[in-house]
Design brief:
Elements: E1 9-12, H1 13-18, H2 20-27, E2 32-36, E3 39-44, H3 47-69
Parallel strand pairs: 1-2
Antiparallel strand pairs: 2-3
Family: Belongs to the phD/YefM antitoxin family.
Function: Antitoxin component of a type II toxin-antitoxin (TA) system.
InterPro entries: Antitoxin_Phd/YefM (IPR006442), phD/YefM_antitoxin (IPR051405), YefM-like_sf (IPR036165)
């Protein structure tokens, strides 16, 4: 079963094992598909890109919460009472 390659480049698991630092450096900040028998088995994502993805996921989750609560009746609160 072949899956689409969702990264600009791919590298075999064997090549990754030989020199992971070189693979990361060659990726130049972009994700790399880790291939097993020419099919993506995993993706290597740079830390900065992963952090950005997690920020987006958090924003999406917060937007869901806001949308779910948008029909609620607001409760007046005085800041001095907190």
């Amino acid at each position: 079963m072949n899956r689409p390659l969702l990264a600009p480049t791919g590298v075999s698991i064997s090549d990754l094992k030989k020199n992971p630092s070189a693979v990361i450096a060659a990726a130049d900040g972009f994700p790399v598909a880790i291939l097993n028998r020419n099919s993506p088995a995993a993706y290597l994502v740079p830390a900065e890109a992963w952090e950005e993805l997690m920020d987006i996921v958090e924003d999406v989750e917060l937007a869901r919460i806001v949308k779910a609560r948008s029909d609620e009746t607001p409760i007046p609160v005085d800041i001095d009472d907190l």
